Amino acid sequence: MNLSLKKSVALIALFAASVCQGAFAQSGERPGDKGSDKADPAKWHNEGFYYFNPKNSSDPLLLIDPSTSNGRKSGGYRQHMASAWSGGIASAKDDAIVKGETSQTVLHDLKPVFYAYFEKDNINPKLFVLVQFIQKKGNRLLVVGSHNAYGSSQGVSEKQVVDFTYEKLSSGIFKIIPKDALEDGGEYCFYYIGKAESNFAGGFYDFGIAK
Question: What is the overall mean pLDDT for the chain?
Fold first, then answer.
């Protein structure tokens, strides 16, 4: 093979590699989406939250599908009566409602480990809260704000927030561990509280715990 032909082959290979990289960038995919890497949580997987099940060595990551809110409820009878008697000073809670008292995703693990994969560099676990739902009358409730006669505020109730720690493994890949054991029979979710536009906004990445 002469020198000019070798140069042409090298240029073609370089061009093909750049096209492949562009395809990954445009589609939001990264190497490791498919194939043997699926058993390695430190390698890229499709965007989302996953539960890590060490008992399943061949496919240990379980994708947590999101649920959506079935509407909102502003306080209850007692809260409205308290507000009326206080001249509007007492606050009423604003609840997001997720249908069903239990999630379809059940984890038999009181100390679960999660992995999260984010395509955008400006998304990380700091923009999420892990919360425990209030189970009531066939639904799961999450307090997302409060209001009274003088105004309103937005934010998840601290009483429902579960602390967690996280470790960044590489770009867009995070390991998440709740600080304390979760409650047997409890219902939980990861909920996006960031202000930046995100595919995670409005989703309740929910799961239940059953020992």
Answer: 79
Q: Give whole-number Cα distances, 3 to 6, 12, 99, 104, 179, in Å.
A: 5, 14, 69, 63, 62
Structure token pair of residue 65: 């599908």
Judge if pTM exceeds 0.90. Answer: no
Q: How far apart are CA 159 and CA 142, in angstroms?
A: 10
Contact 110, 121 (CB under 8 A): no
* Domain layout of the chain by residue ranges: 47-209
70 neighbors 97 (Cβ within 8 angstroms):
yes
Tens digits of residue pLDDT in 35-83: 447 899 999 999 999 999 989 999 999 999 999 998 765 654 443 433 3
